[in-house]
Amino acid sequence: MEQKESKSTAESERRRLIRSKIHVGLAALGTLSAVAGIGVVINGGLYFNRTKVLVGVGIIVVSTILYISMLFVAADDD
Q1: Residues 6+ apart with CB under 8 A from 75
Q2: Is 73 helix (H, G, I), strand (E, B) or coil?
Q3: Per-residue pLDDT reduced to its tens digit, 19-28
Q4: Model's pTM, two decimal places?
Q5: Are 62 and 33 in contact (CB under 8 A)?
Q6: What pLDDT shows up at residue 36?
Q7: Cα(first)–Cα(last) distance of the chain, in Å?
Q8: How far apart are CA 73 and CA 78, in angstroms?
């Protein structure tokens, strides 16, 4: 009986580790996307290109939504 409990505990720990890595990856992706969006906005602003500015703002908004949604999902939900 103890062996089954230790297997389920090991599986639970493995799931928690995988979820933690996914959260870190999403956080990194969201941050890097926001930085890329800021770069596009700056580039568009320097050349007075309204389309680039709007695309950059869109990238920033999407990456921010991704990052915030990742924060509201608990990593240790089973």
Answers
A1: 16, 19, 20, 23
A2: coil
A3: 888 888 888 8
A4: 0.74
A5: yes
A6: 95
A7: 21
A8: 12
Distance CA 46, CA 63 (A): 23
- 21 CB contacts (<8 Å, ≥6 apart)? none
SS3 77: coil
The alpha-carbon radius of gyration of the chain (Å, integer) is 19
Listed in sequence order, the DSSP H helices in the chain are 2-46, 50-71
Place of tokens 């990456």: 63
How many secondary structure helices (H) and strands (E) does the chain include? 2, 0
Residue with tokens 């596009």, as numbered in its chain: 40
Check whether 42 has a pLDDT greater than 90: yes
